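## tool: complex_structure
## caller: assistant
## args:
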Amino acid sequence: MKKSIVLFLSCLLIVTSLTVLPGCQQGKVVLNVYNWGQYINPDLLTKFEKETGIKINLELFETNEHMLAKLEAGGSPYDVVFPSDYVIEEMIKKDMLYKIDFNNIPNFKYVGDRFKNLNYDPTNEYSVPYFWGTLGILYNSEMVDEEVDSWDILWDEKYAGQILMLDSMRDTIGVALKKLGYSVNETDPAKLEEAKNLLIKQRPLVNGYYVDEITDMMINGDAAIALNWSGAAMDIYWEGAEHIKYVVPKEGANLWFDCMVIPKTSQHKAEAERFINFMLDPENAYLNSEYVGYASPVTTVFERLMQENPEVAEMDAYNPSEEILDKCEVFIDLGDKRPLYNQIWTEIKVD
Amino acid sequence: MKNKVKYLAYPYMVWMAIFIVIPLLLVLFYSLTAGNINDPSSLSFSVNSYTRVFDVMYLKVIWKSFKLAIISTVFCLVLGYPVALIISTVKAKYKSILLMFFLVPIWMNFLLRTYAWMAILSPNGFLNRVLTLLGLPTLSIMPGQTAVVLGMIYNFLPFMVLPIYTSLSKIDRNVLEAAMDLGANNLITFLKVILPLTVPGIVSGITMVFMPAVSTFVISQLLGGGKELLIGNLIEQQFTVQRDWHFGSALSIILMVMILISMAVMSKVDTDNGDGGAPIW
Amino acid sequence: MVKFLKRFYLSLIFVFLYAPILVLIVYSFNESKSRGHWGGFTLKWYGELFRDRDIIKALYYTFLVALLSSIISTVIGTFSAIGIHNFGIFGKNIALNINYLPVLNPDIVTGVALMTLFISMNMRLGFLTMLISHTVFNIPYVILSVLPKLKQMNKHMTEAALDLGATPSYALRKVIIPEIMPGVITGALIAFTLSIDDFVISFFNTGSGVTNLSILVYSMAKRGVKPSINALTTLMLLTVVILLLLINRRTTKGDELIP
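## result:
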């Protein structure tokens, strides 16, 4: 009898200690960072850990909607999150974010003025710009020998099975809306219905709806044309695949800004602000932009990259002209019209 | 002693109540309510989530899931039965080696196996490379329904073979000999003796293939390119992207009920309760 | 002729089963990252594998959770099976039916249900929730393996032991447990295998940086793969084959291999 008690208790002891151990790093502060895939230079994380002794736990999400769902469900104490413009609007409305203490972020002065006080955070109290870019068309110039300048090419039957669309609701529906000449923030059900039908018509030509897979697939030659974000094009360019080009169609596209925010689930606000400040440091921002490929809102970084790589100044993907920017729209929060989009999106994804 | 021994199981009874019963009740609860889940006071009774499922669009998804699952199960059965049969007729010393090598893929991670299939079927993947080398036209199988079905068959075939093999190995050799002695040839022996005796194994195999096939979301996600939405994907989306826990819960309950009904039907076919552990369903 | 056909068919099936894995193994030696062309022979991905923080972390958690949950579920499951075996008919039926729900339910339903529970209890999703989830679906399989052995056991042996002066716990340890040991071990093995392989339930019930191999491969498959995963596949295959060969050697009957 004694023996079994001893055995049982020791088992219990081992089990509890092993269970508790992983959580026992309570000494060090750990920042939970929730970011897009391949959107931050891993060397920077190591650098931050070395400089500050704060450990970073990086978790990845695919789209804003995935991120919001996880945040709203609760159960995950993220400290720094990287949402896009329209999502920040929603998060502010729902009181999900802390106001940032800009006294802790002196490096904010390096951010270009045109990135501050934008429509989704007019008083600029909740967000700090991280990367910005456009939505456009990636195409393999060896597989597509005509000029690409319009969204129409994504509906071209010549490329059936070679077209990749984004598994991201706002982006894909936005493209259809733009093609029809409407706004990407359209809420008129009749116009949305038109966009839906356009996308359903396109389905047989589409190879698939992806997110992160697209860069790999384009480089591999698995597809000829893809809807994607500007930074992906830069990424591909830096990998050496110069035959893959990016263009913002003449109908206009989406201009987006991704920012760093501190959700109210955070338990380490001061450390989170330190992290944000670290990312805005010009040297770090440069390393980041170089690695990830997207354009930084830190002015000196933007200019430096163009100096060191002059050809980049001509590229839509990195430095879109004023003309193009004029035709681009920023997403706004759909508010209670969101279910309309949800419904359409499901209808498109289901056969 | 009997009275005291019962107590050994009591902690587990509590565990089950907390971790099996309550979660399912919660899901049922969410399926029958509407409102913001983070704000309990806003919840109200509603069967809206269930009526939504009867929309043609969602019924199509359910139909597709069943269709693909049934196709995969049938293929697994047709392909797997001969495998079980052959292995069971092999000389004893080879049996365990063969079986072992058959089991190896199962022990490799399920995700890895599905991912491996992606590498073969993708447009520039292995299959098309070989075809190009041979001068044949390339196939664009992936992404698509065929790829998903292939993925299902690949992952679940061993689960069909194993129960059938177990059934086969339980057959008394003497019964077979008796059949032969009474004048039956191989075919008749198989149809009239072996096949009926392996019905429990077949039923088990069908269950072990059909159930994961109909509820998968990984296979359809990775091999379907986001175009082949099955029930599993729909449920997953409600909880990860659409943020509609009510609808997701309703779909989960419906899926659960459908599976339980299928199993009840299956168990009517199988009267042998040799396991001793099979429940009422 | 028939023999030839049998062998041919069997080999076809084996080719079907192993082809994808072999393809990955070949790619693990490919210098080029892309799945398209062959860039030359290299072992660098194996080195990368051991340096990759994410992969090592995922492997660590995968094994830790599998080990812990199989130990816990085997202990709880075995004792509970013994207890349930001695329930009255009514109690037994209820207990078993509820017990088998995680087995019968598709794993997405179990995963989602557990997540709902944890969120409602305001628990942080992480190591503990993942461990609990794994234990929840492991215990039924342990009970499933042990119960038949209990049934096969001669009831009168325990009674005889008690009559001969053994205390209940002595009878438990020296009579019952040795009899059902094969079932216990099988149950533990099943629990371990299921845990290592689990994706869906873990996917919904983990967070805070705790991940496992399946979740890692899933995000890689969508994100563009790190070639070190191919190297991992090769090593896994080797490990599994060696393990099974060892097990095969130690068991006399081939039947015991069947989970």
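## assistant note: Chain C touches chain A through 34 residues (CB under 8 Å). Chain C has twelve helices and no strands. Handing back to user.
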